[in-house]
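Lab notebook, page 48
Experiment: co-folding of the full assembly
Goal: obtain a model of how the components sit together before planning crosslinking
Operator: M.T.
Materials (sequences as entered):
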Amino acid sequence: AQSVAQPEDQVNVAEGNPLTVKCTYSVSGNPYLFWYVQYPNRGLQFLLKYITGDNLVKGSYGFEAEFNKSQTSFHLKKPSALVSDSALYFCAVSPTMNNNAGNMLTFGGGTRLMVKP
Amino acid sequence: GAGVSQTPSNKVTEKGKYVELRCDPISGHTALYWYRQSLGQGPEFLIYFQGTGAADDSGLPNDRFFAVRPEGSVSTLKIQRTERGDSAVYLCASSLGSSGANVLTFGAGSRLTVL
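Observation: model returned without errors.
Model output:
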């Protein structure tokens, strides 16, 4: 069975500074990896995904993530944080071996990002 | 519609009552998923539909939970004899296909409170 760990419940960063939100995963075979963001009283919004190819993936709102197979990590990064980036961030994984049997994502517990002015 | 629509947005019920939660996916999306998000946790998979059939219901916690999608579009999650532990936000998501690479688009969720 697959699992995702987000070791930090909360990350605090000053506006304009770089941010990193950590994610490690465990899955049989190769993974599909996703980051979603959740704002209060709103649904999860897709940020970016890793499927194959280049290990550095760029997504919405200036976010990017780096797939590291040897460390089984997929950390979310942004060069310069904005106050409006403050939200709850979720990392998720699904095994590629599912092929077309559905995308039953396994989510991490979430990391709250607080960007202070 | 433009997005995934879930109703009601909030539901308060008493222990032992029956509850239905509705999901209207993005038009044309054949895959539909239900997740449950308890306070302070990530979403947990409940059930996946491909078309009208439940392709994977391995996440349903017990036989009090049931979901249908009779015409391959709108889905209803049904909870019988609700318990206080069922209190959570129930999220619905849809995607264009059933590949693991497909992006899931989530609704805003239905917050269920069982008193």
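Interpretation: Chain B has no helices and eleven strands.
Next step: discuss with group before ordering constructs.
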